[in-house]
Amino acid sequence: MEQNGPETVDGVQSVVTGQVVLPEEDQLRAQFYGLFARLLAAPMSAETIQIARELDGGEGELGEAISTFATLAQRSTENAASEEFTLLFYGNGSGGELLPYASHYLTGFLYERPLADLRRTLSEIGIAPADGMTEPEDHIAFLCEVMHGLITGVWDASPEAACQRTFFETHMAPWAGRFFADLEKAESAALYMPLGTMGRLFMAIEAEAFVMAGE
Known about the structure:
CATH class of the domain at 17-41 and 99-214: Mainly Alpha
Strand content: under 5%
Oligomer: single chain
Structural class: mainly alpha
CATH superfamily of the domain at 17-41 and 99-214: TorD-like
Distance between the termini: 33 Å
Radius of gyration: 16 Å
CATH architecture of the domain at 17-41 and 99-214: Orthogonal Bundle
Helix content: 55-70%
Strand order of the largest sheet: 1-2
Number of strands: 2
């Protein structure tokens, strides 16, 4: 994805967009989306697994899932994490255990209407996939990256809650929680199991927050 501006995925740095300093809550939301985008786009690099090892959870079910993920990352190697990612999403020539695409979850097939609808939305927002991108845009990692950008305004636009809500409710809410729940219970998932828990809980929090904001 083509974008300009800062990106944070480690839960530490403040997010500043032009003259806009994001509230702490939105910083945290952006960091979650950035983290999911990074972890689900490709097998973990040495840098990515180190970020995972340094995550700090906290209280509550979501905090416990983050702590579990960090602990498992500390015990895992880059090669083991890569092998697990391959089994989950690529498979051994016959496809992975999970297909992380909106079209698949909503229609049972790839490259269907959800992808066409998403591409129309992306065009309206002014977002274009980066050159060389091989995955269709309705991949969960790409959608998380879009939400990260909508929150932080990395496309030289002020963050707008209405745009975030519309994008989330249209392109993520109908299926993203189901995907993360499937990741949580996938047979091939060990390191990625608590990531599924994190995503499932976070998507539920986001959905509830958008509903409350719209009332």
